[in-house]
Specification:
about 110 residues; alpha+beta
Length: about 110
């Protein structure tokens, strides 16, 4: 399921409850174009986040905070209320946040070599 920013507090609550005790997968892509040569390099990155159970009280505080309505998927990995309930990240935190630094660096280097 692809999740954008929640459109309401109810949808945000549904998203976060769905992560509780489960997993979220984030897929991102990067395209780099060398404007001097026209060479284009592209790639994608996948990260998985596994969560402990998130208590309803914490979900209520996240919803009241309002941040859940401003981010895709309704949850910020680095939010102080969320961080304690992250069990494992397979991949990179920056990939979860939206832009894999290592993939971007790799593609930039490749585009400069071609």
């Amino acid at each position: 399921m692809i999740r954008e920013k929640p459109s309401s507090k109810e949808e945000a609550r549904h998203f976060v409850k769905g992560y509780s005790g489960g997993c979220a997968v984030v897929v991102g892509s990067v395209v780099v174009t060398n404007l001097s040569t026209g060479s284009r390099k592209q790639g994608w990155d996948k990260s998985e986040v596994y969560f402990h159970d998130i208590p309803d009280e914490v979900i209520d505080r996240l919803i009241d905070d309002g941040v859940t309505l401003n981010v895709a998927g309704g949850l910020m990995l680095e939010h102080p209320l969320t961080a304690h309930f992250v069990d494992t990240v397979i991949g990179t935190p920056d990939g979860v946040m939206g832009l894999s630094k290592s993939l971007t660096q790799k593609l930039l280097e490749e585009s400069l070599q071609s």
